[in-house]
UniProtKB/TrEMBL annotation, chains A, B:
UniProt xrefs under InterPro entries: ALAT1/2-like (IPR045088), Aminotransferase_I/II_large (IPR004839), PyrdxlP-dep_Trfase (IPR015424), PyrdxlP-dep_Trfase_major (IPR015421), PyrdxlP-dep_Trfase_small (IPR015422)
SUPFAM superfamilies the record matches: PLP-dependent transferases
UniProt record similarity statement: Belongs to the class-I pyridoxal-phosphate-dependent aminotransferase family. Alanine aminotransferase subfamily.
Protein name: Glutamate pyruvate transaminase
Coiled coil (UniProt feature): none
RNA-binding keyword on record: no
Gene3D superfamilies in alphabetical order: 1.10.287.1970, Aspartate Aminotransferase, domain 1, Type I PLP-dependent aspartate aminotransferase-like (Major domain)
Cofactor(s) needed for function: pyridoxal 5'-phosphate
Recorded superkingdom: Eukaryota
Pfam families, alphabetized: Aminotran_1_2 (PF00155)
Keywords: Aminotransferase, Pyridoxal phosphate, Transferase
Subunit field text: Homodimer.
GO terms, molecular function: pyridoxal phosphate binding; transaminase activity
Length: 514, 514
């Protein structure tokens, strides 16, 4: 055993009167600091492009605009790289924020202050709601809740799901989570960990999935969405992906579906969903249904939940789908709520045994509980003011205005892309994104190669430097090799930025003609 | 390749008009549901006693009290199992909650409502503070912030640390996190993952550490705190633990220190801290300093931060400690804030290279950002109303009252334990817990063995069933084999529960005499 030097010698009273320290007499060999070599390789391998090099460069430029105004060819950064509506001036829903402010300061609800709240346009239903929710949280949003989430709020979620689907839902199957990303972390950690396990993920995908798989050292098993048929799925392809994985010794355990699609903006047909459940039933795959954009559908294509489709299949074809397990995710970050920073979300577990749910509960308990105000926001999202309640009309107006603005902006941007040389784009059906396909000339491809980046990354970087518009290259979401895309939100208000994008594109295209 | 059945046959229009589903013609072999056998073994192995079987039983009893009042020998559950002050009627600090309510509903700050805020006793400094903090958050707490946390709030943390320690601190080294548990997850995932890596953890410990190590499949390397010398550390023991680990092929990478101690309630001497840094310097260990109870010290023993000690060592003994890496954790859940449900926290990274910090930033970016209101609460915690500001006096009164109440309760409970047969307890110095040592008769030990539980677990279970007091057995925190303890908070108001505990104990002791 290596001897450790005695501490009991030569006291030194220092400038810091309370610190009595002793001199180490040996010159023990100095340990080195940790470097990248000492870091868990899985963490090093994880990639998350939505906040990757281009958004980081955008942060630098933003800082430069503060420190040296006028030093760049644009006056602000348009963060179209991430679905963050309130960063781009979307206003939060009034009812939500009134209730949350009362939860943070219940003193506002004391009897003396009724007049006061009226002046600030708090309706009695907001106060009643805050009282109910505060009581359900045990009297304070500053106390830890149950790790699974406040029971009363989970009841609200179960009612919402039952209404949405016309099928029963149980509060015991609901876990409130930190956004939807918290739920993804739990489920993949549980069922898809280590190189012998894999999860089928759509390509293109939201990079949370590949990043979380990388952290778990598990295998992403990509299945391609078909751009030409509105980003649809192909049952034959699932079979091929699974067979190839099994040949390589990887067991597929989960199948991720993002619907409405991120980054594609497409809504899956019920036929596609049925095909997914068939493969899930056959191969015992836990279906992870990322349905966080379920409120973000446009009128022409309606969203149907995976659970509803599953229940119908289970009823009409008894025996085939009985054992399917589904985890459906939702979030307060998207939809008309857009409350990203509040970190609310939930998952519904369908078809899980009590013992497995208990393991998930234990996992949740290690991080104690999701933020209670985020949980409260989930309750507000799934149970907004109802017809006949005082706040209903105003709330509806606000919702419709947000919905309408998003629809208009998506169409504007879609039409702009249609007008650009070398760009094609599927018509948006839902979510907050467009994912246009970019053709590049040989000259552009060579230029990118010379710079050591992919052509779409080169394009996005040039776009940022010229216009301040921050997007994410398709490579961040993966794509069919040899194809190029980018993801942009259509959240930014106004049309100036679209005009400047058009101008940039024309110039870029002209400069890179073969 | 396995063939997948064609979907294109026998359409069925169902009761659900929009769901057009097709009958699967094959009877493909049904996949089985996931069971415990399919779950990541690391997750199965993780234990978290603070919310383990005894607290779960307490939840059942709580439910029973609601459904059948009077059916139990007590009228309420005393949740002494977890440091959750606001669950036990501790009031949040007024200033914090006023600012948070304004952040949630900035409309309250419009000029028309000045009178209104005055009526509700909002002082102008609360409004000014909320305006500053809202602007720093980019105008809404509903927007994602930087993944590292709002820059302005990190500046506040750096100032707080600099004032506390008299040593500079840099906002770039601060990461705002989801409570302190979020920070622990990041650091252990980064540096201590896989069975070839281990972390030195104090025994007894807060079970977050063993649980997180289990999730990372890494080795806990226990070092024992010496109860008889106020739970002090022993430098020789560190050497032994490290040598034994290395012999077994495990590389120690981190060293966890909890100060003030959880569950011990003890404060480490500076001599002990110096010894810890010596071993860290010698063996390249990242020191994880869990300092979340730094505000919870009692008058007689003062808290000194690990960073302050490190900086003094670095100055007075140049060369020896230069390469030490320290992660210091703090949280809004404890102290006089007690805002557990708001999930605020931070970590300061000392001695880390830019490239390693960038990897941590990438990891943080995968979960997007910590809840922004929790971040705001960190800012409030580190920068409360200052002398001369309008809210200062009232805020100070509230703080002193909480501090005083905790001190009184800890003393009451400590004296109660001193009076009990077979119980000994170190004098509380800090944190929110007492960790008394229990002696058991052979009869009690045999009884526990017959029930298949450890003696301290048996005691805690009996205590719960007889009095409604929910505690955690020492085994949940680990302890020297053959010794028995329990952890209880001293947060519950009143003395009735202490009296009923005393009565229970006397009866238990009488019933189990040899």
């Amino acid at each position: 055993m290596l001897g450790f030097r005695s501490l009991s010698s030569s006291r030194l009273v220092l400038a810091h009167p309370r610190l009595v320290l002793r001199r180490l007499r040996s010159t023990a060999p100095l340990g080195a600091r940790k470097t990248l070599q000492d870091i868990n390789e899985c963490v090093l391998n994880a990639k998350y492009a939505v906040r990757g090099p281009i958004p980081l460069r955008a942060e630098e430029l933003k800082q430069q605009l503060v420190e040296e105004p006028g030093s760049l060819p644009f006056s602000k950064i348009i963060n179209a790289n991430i679905g963050n509506p309130q960063q781009l001036d979307q206003k939060p829903l009034t009812f939500y924020r009134q209730v949350l402010s009362l939860l943070q300061n219940p003193a506002l609800m004391s009897e003396n202050h009724e007049q006061l709240l009226t002046t600030a346009k708090y309706q009695p239903d907001a106060v009643a709601r805050a009282k109910r929710m505060l009581q359900q949280a045990g009297g304070s949003v500053g106390a830890y809740s149950q790790s699974q989430g406040v029971a009363g709020y989970r009841e609200s979620v179960a009612k919402f799901i039952a209404n949405r689907d016309g099928e029963p839902a149980d509060a015991n199957d609901i876990f409130l989570t930190t956004g939807a990303s918290g739920a993804v972390a739990y489920i993949l950690q549980l069922f898809c960990s280590g190189p012998q396990n894999g999860a089928l993920i759509p390509i293109p995908q939201y990079p949370l999935y590949t990043a979380t798989l990388a952290l778990n050292n598990a295998e992403p098993l990509p299945y391609y969405l078909d751009e030409n048929s509105g980003w649809s799925t192909d049952p034959e392809q699932f079979e091929k992906v699974i067979a190839t994985a099994v040949e390589k010794g990887v067991k597929p355990t989960c199948l991720v579906v993002i619907n409405p699609g991120n980054p594609t903006g497409a809504i899956l047909s019920e036929e596609n969903i049925e095909g997914i459940f068939q493969v899930a039933a056959k191969y015992s795959l836990v279906v992870i249904a990322d349905e966080v954009y379920q409120e973000n559908g446009f009128d022409d294509v309606e969203f149907t939940s995976m659970k509803k489709v599953l229940r119908v299949l289970q009823k009409t074809q008894p025996g085939i789908y009985d054992n399917v397990q589904l985890v459906s995710l939702h979030s307060t970050s998207k939809g008309v709520s857009g409350e990203c920073g509040q970190r609310g979300g939930y998952m519904e577990l369908v078809g899980f045994s009590t013992e497995v749910k208990q393991v998930i509960l234990k996992l949740a308990s290690i991080s104690l509980c999701p933020v209670v105000t985020g949980q409260a926001l989930v309750d507000l999202m799934v149970c907004p003011p109802q017809k006949g309640e005082v706040s209903y009309e105003k709330d509806q107006q606000e919702r419709k205005a947000i919905h309408q603005a998003l629809k208009e902006r998506s169409n504007l941007l879609y039409r702009a892309f249609q007008s650009l040389e070398g760009v094609s784009c599927q018509k948006p059906q839902g979510s907050m994104y467009l994912f246009p396909k970019l053709e590049f000339t040989k000259r552009a491809i060579d230029k990118a190669e010379a710079l050591g980046v992919a052509p779409d990354e080169y394009y996005c970087k040039e776009l940022l430097e010229a216009t301040g518009i921050c997007t994410v290259p398709g490579s961040g979401f993966r794509q069919i090799p040899g194809t190029y895309h980018l993801r942009t939100t259509f959240l930014a208000p106004g049309t100036d930025w679209i005009e400047s994008w058009k101008k940039f594109h024309e110039k870029f295209w002209d400069q890179h003609r073969d």
